[in-house]
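User: structure tokens for this one?
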Amino acid sequence: MRQLNKNFDYLVGAKLEGFSQSVKITDAPLIICEGDEYPASAVERHPKFHFLYPHIAILTGIAWDHINVFPTFDFYLEQFVIFINKIETGGVLIYNEDDQVLKQLVENNLRTDIRYQPYSVPEHQIVNGITYVKIDGVEGQLNVFGNHNLLNLFAAYFACKELGISAADFVHVMHNFKGAAKRLELLASNNNINIYRDFAHAPSKVKASVEAVKQQFPDRTLFGILELHTFSSLNEAFMPQFNGAFDQVDVGVVFYSNHALALKRMPELPAEKVMDGFNKPGLIVLNQKSDLQNWLSKQNFNNSNILFMSSGNFDGIDIHSFAQQIIQS
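Assistant:
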């Protein structure tokens, strides 16, 4: 929108390059809002997206990530049905049909007064670690990669198409998009090592980020280092949700701080419960910052990608400094 000189407002959660803030409210004819099912605030417990009444709506997927907020899956799904019913008459719902739970939910709650636009992973190819996408016959190179980004990109295209933007213009400007901060963010690289930071912490997001990096660089060793930081991810009962999330990781580490458990007043999380939940042979489980730092210092990262995933900060470890040390060593 910005590169095509469209007048728009926005309310988003992530920091984007070129935008000094994450909210802009004026008298523009268009506003782009990011919202999800998580409570709007500590006081207002209704989901954020229940306060939006969109003309163009996008649902990217269903992932029951917050068992502390939505104790049952049916209650969780109900929040999305409520959102669908808030779409303005004459509007359109753009939804990810690759997500079978979402696809079924949409088909079970069809409205006759709105339109539906399903989407899936667009046509693309990966050449020497670079993704090329083709949309409505227009091909272009991307800075971002992975099926998660490709899905979001295609959803964004359909939203832009509703606003009269051509495929040629869309693909042209998307070439310059580097992604949001902490979403497969490249911290440092050299000829044979890439180091990424990613906000992924929920099982579905972890799996998507892992698969994206492995698909982009299949011949490199993938080190996956995940910090369990949220209430759900530190809950012993939630561990089975991570089953399969690390399947494409070559060397996997799960870190969680005893300090974080104490701050959240949560009981001890046994390492064996984490290992059982992830079901990943050879998984390393650490819960002391010093142990993680020591382990990192002993690894051979030649011809590899390192993926740090967390909504926290690995108990204060300076990931940026580590990344620079690795590529310069």
